[in-house]
Write a structure and sequence with these properties.
five-stranded antiparallel sheet, 7 strands, alpha+beta, single chain, Peptide Deformylase, globular
């Protein structure tokens, strides 16, 4: 089917507890099937869920691919001015490698589309250098700081089989256990399509 007739789809986001979220993802090449459609669908899914990043493992694919669009953090709101460095920060990262993390670590309240309605303060490096391929398989190496670096670090963790809750203390994680169990069983209400690993049939 010609690309101009392609209809973007919202993909189900896999929930906490799905083994794919714990796999170290594999690199892909230009022959990966329907890659353009997948990237389009990932953006569509991310926007529908009001996210700023989405990694392929979150839609069930253990491949080294993620998309970001930090523009929501670039807009002014009632909490104050936005971050201009992410106002036009929309990118596709294929087979990325974080070359360097530097600068002081700083705390920010993070959440994840695979772990709805759970947010925690997470410490991350303020600066990174990352090498990656874009959607045309052209190579880039860029330096990022602040929120741009944080968004990318969060999504990079996904393709390494890690989640943001791995970076919080054991006591806080223990306090989240019942909520995490409910998420994995689908015993929650969420405003976007999800796939729950331990949901009972008929729900």
């Amino acid at each position: 089917m010609p690309s101009e007739y392609f209809y973007r789809m919202k993909l189900p986001i896999v929930a906490y507890g799905d083994p794919v979220l714990r796999k170290k993802a594999e690199e892909i090449d230009e022959d990966y099937p329907n890659l353009k459609e997948l990237i389009d669908n990932m953006f569509e899914t991310m926007y529908a869920a009001r996210g700023v990043g989405l990694a392929a493992p979150q839609v069930g694919l253990p491949i080294r691919l993620f998309v970001v669009d930090g523009s929501p953090f670039g807009e002014d709101d009632e909490d104050g001015p936005g971050d201009p460095t992410v106002k036009d920060f929309k990118k596709v990262f294929i087979n990325p490698i974080i070359v360097e993390e530097s600068g002081d670590k700083w705390s920010f309240n993070e959440g994840c589309l695979s772990i709805p309605d759970v947010t925690e303060e997470v410490m991350r490096h303020s600066n990174i250098t990352i090498n990656y391929l874009d959607e045309n398989f052209e190579e880039h190496e860029i330096e990022l700081s602040g929120l741009g670096a944080r968004i990318v670090q969060h999504e990079y963790d996904h393709i390494e089989g890690k989640l943001f809750i791995d970076k919080i203390g054991p006591l806080k994680k223990a306090m989240l256990k019942s909520r995490l169990d409910s998420i994995s069983k689908g015993l929650i209400r969420v405003g976007y399509k999800m796939k729950f690993p331990f949901q009972k049939k008929g729900r």
